[in-house]
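ok, trying the design again with the full structure, not the truncated one.
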């Protein structure tokens, strides 16, 4: 609770500082608008305050994005899914983990990283001094590909706008991309993950650390050392930006 209040205070202070630099001294609700929830949703990357001091729009919530995605038919993966796997965790998380696509257990429960790879991710979080409730976890793809095949580029393209909106709603300080598909899709790179991991990149203006997927670590335990080195960099970055 205390951490949440400190984060809200930090965000409010940053917003007020930006407003001050723009010369904004007063906030005025548009005619007919009585509460923030009645404001229209801002387009991505657009501030909700104009130079005249008027609040023009608001950031949409994860609940609103999830509701829009509920009956998604934007790609053929909808035909075989049981559940959309949207994401779980803290909607104001400083750290977001982005995986590849749901597997069988995730599809059955509608929650990301609930199988053996998910339990390993929980242990990684524990080693970082974190829990699922403190971070946000989602995937590039929201529906399970048949037989757990790699999602196709057109399927990822159909889902990516929702990932961008999720990240805009959360506004994290750091993203961790888990696995080859997530890393190469977000970075628009075909470079091997072994060469991309361990170095900072950016996605939608947010620092991004690529690393191996927990499922890879189950098959290749020696990679755990490299993942831990990546997570130490993530923790350092979070401390520096807090």
């Amino acid at each position: 609770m205390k951490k949440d209040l400190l984060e809200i205070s930090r965000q409010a202070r940053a917003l007020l500082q930006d407003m001050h630099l723009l010369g904004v001294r007063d906030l005025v609700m548009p005619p007919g608008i009585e509460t923030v929830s009645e404001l229209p949703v801002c387009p991505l990357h657009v501030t909700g305050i104009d130079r005249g001091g008027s609040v023009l729009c608001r950031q949409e919530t994860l609940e609103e994005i999830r509701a829009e995605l509920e009956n998604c038919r934007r790609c053929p993966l909808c035909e075989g899914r049981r559940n959309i796997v949207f994401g779980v965790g803290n909607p104001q998380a400083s750290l977001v983990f982005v995986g590849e696509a749901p597997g069988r257990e995730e599809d059955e429960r509608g929650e990301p990283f609930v199988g053996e790879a998910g339990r390993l991710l929980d242990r990684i979080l524990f080693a970082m001094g974190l829990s699922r409730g403190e971070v946000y976890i989602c995937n590039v793809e929201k529906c399970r590909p048949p037989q757990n095949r790699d999602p196709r580029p057109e399927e990822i393209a159909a889902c990516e706008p929702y990932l961008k909106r999720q990240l805009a709603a959360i506004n994290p300080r750091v993203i961790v991309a888990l696995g080859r598909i997530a890393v190469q899709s977000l970075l628009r790179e075909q470079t091997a993950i072994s060469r991309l991991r361990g170095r900072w990149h950016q996605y939608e203006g947010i620092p991004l650390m690529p690393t191996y997927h927990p499922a890879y670590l189950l098959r290749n335990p020696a990679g755990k050392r490299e993942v831990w080195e990546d997570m130490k960099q993530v923790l350092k970055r979070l401390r520096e930006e807090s």
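Keeping the full-length input from now on. The chain is about 40% helix and 10% strand.
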